[in-house]
Recover the amino acids of this structure.
């Protein structure tokens, strides 16, 4: 196992170099000049030339990339072109918001997705199975921006139960320790802030969970149907073991590997920042940060976000692979 983990970690190096290179090149193909966005349309050619030189944008692209790569290996992702703040600082300020909403969304998606998938697999072809698969199809097909707007309309405007945007009501004062609002509110015993932050999570969390929940439900059903037809499951039924025990202990555990793979992939995607959801709900996370950076052609900030998202995605896949051995003792890594 140790050799496998070390080998996978070493493989991170060429993967991240490749990702950073292509991200660096493709970002610069986006139409628009960041210096002109900074200075405005009335900027003179001399001012643009001066700023480009200060930012190092006048150098050849390959040289710019080598400088970026050299600094990145030292933990320096550069400074934002627009705010002049360190990229790593801006990302660390926004990343907790993305982790909070992603964990909340994946908790909903995983629990409901697995439950619905198991429910549908028990009686394939039944009304419940048809209904679950119909809902899963809607969940996969539904545009997130439409779902987000409908949740705001119904949950906030019609019912008036949930706030439409943001992470915390402006009237609440919360002392920041970790930038995780739920954790900070508990650490400071500010339970009013905890409840309010939780209420702010509900609408974006449900919007973000729709597609993963549908995918997990479909995968759970498919995997469970395959396992339930195995001879050892039929043997347990023949022995007269309780149906609930057979399904939850024997069948579900052996069906978990593809389910965990899907959960890991979905979690990795969402941690990169759900641009559409965070923009609709004015959620100050990574997705909103990437959107603002693209609009302002903030090259260093975009590069930093892509690099961090890629690193997280690869690490989550590694964790999922390691979990396989704990779920199924027959799996061994040499």
């Amino acid at each position: 196992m140790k050799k496998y983990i070390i080998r996978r970690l070493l493989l991170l190096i060429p993967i991240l170099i490749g990702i950073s290179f292509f991200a660096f090149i493709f970002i610069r193909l986006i139409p628009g000049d960041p210096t002109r966005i900074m200075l405005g349309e009335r900027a003179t050619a001399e001012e643009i030339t001066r700023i480009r030189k200060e930012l190092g944008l006048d150098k050849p692209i390959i040289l710019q990339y080598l400088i970026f790569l050299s600094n990145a290996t030292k933990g320096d992702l550069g400074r934002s072109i627009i705010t002049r703040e360190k990229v790593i600082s801006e990302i660390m300020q926004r990343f907790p918001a993305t982790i909070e909403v992603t964990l909340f969304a994946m908790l909903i998606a995983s629990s409901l997705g697995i439950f619905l998938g198991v429910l549908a697999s028990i009686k394939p072809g039944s009304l419940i199975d048809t209904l679950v698969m119909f809902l899963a199809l809607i969940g996969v097909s539904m545009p997130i921006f439409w779902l987000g707007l409908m949740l705001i309309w119904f949950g906030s405007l019609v019912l008036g139960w949930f706030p439409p945007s943001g992470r915390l009501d402006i009237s609440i004062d919360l002392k920041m320790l970790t930038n995780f609002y739920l954790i900070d509110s508990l650490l400071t015993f500010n339970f009013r802030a905890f409840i309010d932050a939780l209420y702010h999570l509900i609408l974006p969390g449900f919007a973000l969970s729709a597609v993963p929940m549908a995918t997990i439900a479909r995968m759970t059903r498919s995997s469970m149907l395959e396992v339930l037809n195995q001879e050892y499951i039929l043997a347990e039924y023949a022995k007269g073991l309780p149906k609930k025990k057979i399904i939850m202990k024997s069948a579900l555990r052996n069906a978990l590997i593809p389910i965990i793979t899907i959960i890991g992939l979905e979690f990795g995607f969402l941690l990169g920042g759900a641009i559409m959801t965070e923009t609709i709900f004015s959620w100050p996370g990574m997705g909103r940060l990437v959107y603002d950076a693209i609009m302002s052609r903030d090259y260093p900030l975009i590069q930093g976000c892509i690099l961090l998202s890629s690193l997280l995605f690869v690490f989550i896949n590694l964790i999922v692979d390691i979990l396989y051995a704990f779920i199924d003792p027959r799996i061994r890594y040499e």
